[in-house]
């Protein structure tokens, strides 16, 4: 890796960290950058995942104020993220990429639709609860299963997992969107961190390849970007934040279809 390549990867890491903290889909910057620089797709995917972990953690740290009082919820939903990430990471190591190449654009499109209609669905669910329905502060079994499925996807590739998470959380839970964004960042950190540990263990066994230079540059960049993105994202009004989510999600679909 020469100096220009290193600068490109570092810059991509900063941008990805910021986007992940605000919305998600940062992998759609770093992953194509590594591929464009000549890294094999699986190696690029694994290196990208490991490198973005510190950015996920810094993004969650940036939302620490909103995460106050969320311990029980994070433990419950985090268990789904943990299990799903292990399953997704194993799928990445065992299966060809063609299957998810077909599924992922549709998944992101559904997530964007959920983000757009979230206020109406949330109001409907609130009305149902006020009429005597059961209120589940942690979202119940359906949300847990949805987070589990998102964890599988995140462990496999992960681009736009934040969009899927924020859509699911926004519909199932009664909290402010900024609080849910903090929860989303924490769960994304669990998913990527778990997958990174799995990939590192497999690398030690000689069963996969990791570019540690790429990991280091993405880690430094995404940590900076995560802190900056958290500060910016907290100041964005809910309506504007939803608009950003939709724009980034549509860009993600275009990028995936082009690849």
Automatic annotation (TrEMBL):
It is found in: Cell membrane. The keyword Ligase does not apply. Keywords: Cell membrane, Membrane, Transmembrane, Transmembrane helix, Transport. The chain crosses the membrane at residues 6-39, 74-96, 102-121, 142-173, 185-205, 212-233, 239-257. It is a multi-pass membrane protein. It holds the Pfam family TauE. Belongs to the 4-toluene sulfonate uptake permease (TSUP) (TC 2.A.102) family. This is Probable membrane transporter protein.
């Amino acid at each position: 890796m020469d100096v220009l390549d290193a600068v490109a990867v570092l810059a991509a890491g900063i941008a990805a960290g910021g986007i992940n903290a605000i919305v998600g889909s940062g992998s759609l910057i770093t992953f194509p950058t590594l591929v464009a620089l000549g890294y094999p797709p699986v190696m690029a995917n694994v290196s990208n995942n490991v490198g973005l972990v510190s950015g996920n953690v810094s993004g969650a740290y940036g939302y620490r104020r909103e995460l106050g009082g969320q311990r029980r919820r994070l433990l419950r939903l985090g268990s789904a993220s943990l299990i799903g990430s292990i399953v997704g990471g194993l799928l990445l190591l065992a299966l060809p990429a063609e299957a998810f190449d077909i599924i992922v654009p549709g998944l992101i499109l559904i997530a964007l639709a959920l983000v757009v209609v979230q206020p109406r669905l949330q109001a409907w669910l609130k009305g149902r609860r006020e009429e005597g329905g059961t209120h589940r502060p942690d979202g119940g079994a359906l949300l847990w299963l949805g987070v589990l499925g998102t964890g599988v996807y995140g462990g496999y590739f992960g681009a736009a997992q934040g969009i899927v998470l924020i859509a699911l959380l926004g519909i199932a839970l009664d909290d402010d969107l900024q609080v849910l964004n903090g929860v989303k960042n924490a769960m994304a950190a669990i998913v990527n961190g778990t997958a990174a540990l799995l990939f590192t263990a497999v690398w030690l066994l000689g069963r996969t390849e990791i570019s540690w230079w790429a990991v280091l540059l993405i880690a430094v960049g995404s940590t900076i970007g995560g802190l900056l993105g958290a500060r910016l994202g907290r100041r964005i009004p809910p309506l504007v934040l939803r608009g950003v989510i939709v724009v980034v999600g549509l860009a993600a679909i275009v990028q995936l279809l082009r690849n």
